[in-house]
Amino acid sequence: MDTKQNSVDLVLRNGRVIDPARGLDAVVDVLIENGIIAEMRAKIELGPEKLSQFEQIDASGKWIVPGLIDMHVHLREPGEEYKETISSGTQAAAAGGFTSVACMPNTQPVNDCAAVTQYILEKARDEGSCRVFPVGAISKGIEGKNIAEYGELRATGVAAVSDDGRPVMSSMLMRRALEYAKTFDLLVISHCEDMDLSIGGLMNEGPVSTRLGMRGIPRVAEEIMVARDILLAELTGSRLHLAHISTAGSVALIREAKKRGVPVSAETAPHYFTLNEELISTFDPVYKVNPPLRRPEDIEAIKAGLGDGTIDVIASDHAPHSAVEKELEFEYAANGIIGLESSLPLILRLIREGVLTPLEAVAKVSRNPARILAIPFGTLRKGTTADLTLIDPEVKYTIDVNRFKSKSRNCPFAGIEVQGKAVMTLVGGRVVFSAS
């Protein structure tokens, strides 16, 4: 997107600025000029010559936070535009308070070459409502056979590499991928799943799957690959990020790896700290995700991992599907849910539950993903680009998927009353979403 167009000069007054990068949590005014954060102090006075230039917004009772970053989304373009497009997906992101998204490579064709990366970047520039950081494929065609050309991908603009949607089953290929990525200072994002253990599974393996007569996916299918990739990252010294962590065992493995100094980071998604496997008893395919919804004990472990910093990031894993793929018998329905427009209130719930402080919660979707992806955002420091989100933490409402910007409707939180939402999103000083 062209953030230089339509940027506004404005002053946000009396908002609660929460900037984890500086440890700042204070009520101040924020002045934005020419798309840059120009000043931040208790009371900003505008001279007569600037009164007509600057729009002034009363942010009393609102939070002003660095623009939220979702480092795990599926925009479906190119190839499956009937599910989502870069235009609709970034509109959904902006409405959810996100100023930047990293989009996974399992498009059609797969983003495993410069041409596809360039297409995504050009589409985002021309039609996007937020910044888009493409993620390239680890292997050609995400088939797990041959490594993609990381130099070409890096030069074109990918932020990381991943075969998300499929695991890299070959340990040798994963080792070579980590070594090759290190050459270009590329982050490797791992989808942790042992397909030999999970194949044919529909939900978490355990008493509930037995009762429902469904083939289960054991927790160890995730944990074995978490352990393998941690060991490979330790061997190679390469940066590793573990996607959509869902089990207590995975959290324990990551916690121990961090104590040893392994260069590993991890994310989870809101559905893994809010929904559990009992919901599958409804046989509603909206709850079918990969990895699957787990036990209540896993949810508590995920929350503990968020609280102690073991899990660095909360990402939506926004996975749009049309009714053609999703509204089927549970066995045949596609995995995945949308989350860009429902994540924020679920994250804010963690604050009310005492799992995270406001600074910690905001860090999970701003400073931390910016640091892991090595992108120059995630802070409100003076002189930085004015990517920011204005949040009303008190407003209560019912999630209505029919008002979503996304083209898809596969959201398990539809009809649920929540609290807190983005009321304004700015990218480079440009208002890309306003609730008013």
Explain this structure.
The chain is of the alpha/beta class. It folds into two domains: 10-64 and 384-434, Urease, subunit C, domain 1; 68-373, TIM Barrel (Alpha-Beta Barrel), CATH 3.20.20.140. The protein has 14 helices and 18 strands. It has helices spanning 48-51, 86-95, 114-127, 150-156, 171-183, 195-198, 207-212, 219-236, 248-259, 296-307, 323-326, 343-352, 358-364, 367-373; strands spanning 10-19, 24-33, 36-41, 55-58, 63-66, 68-73, 98-103, 131-136, 160-162, 187-190, 203-204, 216-217, 240-242, 264-268, 313-314, 388-398, 417-427, 430-434. The strands form three sheets. Strands 1, 2, 3, 4, 5, 16, 17 and 18 form an eight-stranded mixed sheet that branches. An eight-stranded parallel sheet has the order 6-7-8-9-10-13-14-15, sandwiched between helices. α5 crosses α8 (219-236), α8 (219-236) runs parallel beside α9 and α9 (248-259) packs parallel to α10. The radius of gyration is 21 Å and the shape is globular. The mean pLDDT is 97.
The CATH homologous superfamily of the largest domain corresponds to: Metal-dependent hydrolases
CATH class of the largest domain: Alpha Beta
Mean pLDDT: 97
Secondary structure: helix percent: 25-40%
Helix/strand class: alpha/beta
CATH topology of the largest domain: TIM Barrel
Number of strands: 18
Radius of gyration: 21 Å
Give the termini separation.
22 Å
How many structurally independent domains? 2
Q: Please tally the helical runs, counting DSSP H or I stretches of 4 or more residues.
A: 14
Task: Indicate the CATH architecture of the largest domain.
Answer: Alpha-Beta Barrel
What's the assembly state of these chains? Answer: single chain
Sheet having the most strands: 8 strands, mixed
Poorly predicted spans:
none
Relative strand content: 15-25%
What sort of overall outline do the alpha carbons produce when their principal axes are compared? globular
